[in-house]
Amino acid sequence: KIKRFFNLSLSLSFSTYLPTNLRMIIIILLVGRRIVTHVVMNAHSFSTSGARRLKTDVDSLLGVFHGHLRKPSASFVEAVEASVLLNLPIEDASRVATACGGAERARARVSEHTEGGGALRYDIGNDESLGENNDLDALVTSAAAIKNELGVFNLDDTVTFAILSKRADLRGGR
Prior knowledge:
- The protein is mainly alpha-helical.
- The protein is 64% helix and 0% strand.
- It contains eight helices and no strands.
- Helix 6 packs antiparallel against helix 7.
- It is globular and about 50 Å long.
- The N terminus is likely disordered.
């Protein structure tokens, strides 16, 4: 019944069937996702000043949403974390990009191996582009640990790497 009620409420475009705070949470989630998909991912690149401007805008929106929810950052997490990634010092951003890129390449190698009819292996083999450690679990754990250390808890490795690839200072002049 609850699931049917929720689907009905959403299909009625946030009608009065939803409590006000739930409507606000959904709206804030959608705004945060739109910022990531339409602003960050569609940008050619972010300069240092552009990243600072995005952070200012995200912080301002958090202030607006704070009038409606006690912890709007919990619902606006994608935009907040994208802002954090774009404003990291270059050394930290490079470390996160390297870790997430390695984990993604390792996942792709595992996927290629399993699609070819092979058994699932967590040892990636001798892929020198992944560095010395070719163990998928270790690569994923390393990427997660680095992201957590820097305050990025919710974005997966693919999205994290894609956001970091928008930084002009990591693009190598492209």
